[in-house]
Records
---
Amino acid sequence: MPGTTPTSRISRWWRGSDLPWDLSKYREDPEYRQSVREEIRVAVRKLLSGEFGTIEASRKLIRFNEMPEEGFLDLLAVFFNVDDASCAFPLGNVGQYWNTEALPREDLKIADVERR
């Protein structure tokens, strides 16, 4: 879409639908806020340790695009870009529905995104 960035597209996508976490509860409940932050820390640790690839980490982290902390959305920019570049890939259970001859080509594309 002209005039939109991956960030604005993702942000609009979450708006109007339920967030995967409760923003009101996040603001009001310190224990819940800590659990949400821990979920973010776990995803980042798994990315840094190599347990998650960049695509999987991106898909986990962009769910937190509505975090109220100033500057947090800017930290997610690279993950929005990775997700945007990989949104059509047959990851997870979706691959079972793909043509088996196409999967090796898609695996090469996935590996390319993961290397960048």
---
Amino acid sequence: MVSTYCNECLPGAIERLHASKLATLGIQVMSSNTRNLLFRILIGCSLGAAALTLIPWSAALVTNDLGYKSLCPFAPWSSLSLAGFAALLAVTKSYLASQKE
């Protein structure tokens, strides 16, 4: 049976073990500031792409499901999936931030 003390220190020990293995491979662990910046960029790009798919474009060959020609013929479904991906990234970012504290 594992004591309570070992259960509390086990996640830190596992993290140090992974960090040491990564260090032997020459890979640095990403800092939380870099990770948050990366998440913000990905969330912004996803939301920007979701907005771009709805922009009307007269040169499009196919009308979308909303009834007009836009940059993406799969609108609004592409917009919803990109917004959902951005939401998933935001939830993941907040989860990772809560685990570090």
---
Amino acid sequence: MHTWIDHLRRAACALDAGRHRVEIDDEFADYASLSASCQDYAWPIAHGESYREAWQRYQQNENLGNLIGMVAQNNATAPGYTELGEKIATQSKVLTAIAVADSASAKARD
């Protein structure tokens, strides 16, 4: 049986009692700015085939709840995933950060 971890494994060795030591080759992105991080995070939603319908609908109606729900259909890892996404997306700090980023983007375009 193969698991998601098989492709990340860098080294493994057998220990006693059927246990194994595994070193994971896990990589994390490093971004120069919050904006760059958000752009990279959102890119698959705006450009990925599996999210095409969700993104097109969002561009037409700007209904964030529907977008989150449709994205969750592909990504949900637990019950309540959609509700958690909506809760995070509507937090005042998140909304403020988005407004600041939008303002900075608009100024950069001018």
---
Amino acid sequence: MNLHASRVLVTREGCALPLRMAEKRYGVVPDIVFYRADGWSLAAPAELEEAAYALWKESWICFQRAGEEMKSIQQYERNKQ
């Protein structure tokens, strides 16, 4: 199952690119996608997951890991603790 997102985080500083560009330039393959209520989404590889979450942590409504179903952001936050 492929993950789809508006952008993919490629640096901890917040640089995010379209999926194809992130894969081609940086070799980044997303492991997780965070979704906002307005439909925008941000994917990240495992090593940038925390940085992606922190960018809009007040705006995320759900998330999805590769190979899994979409889940509420509250479930993500509970599992972080």
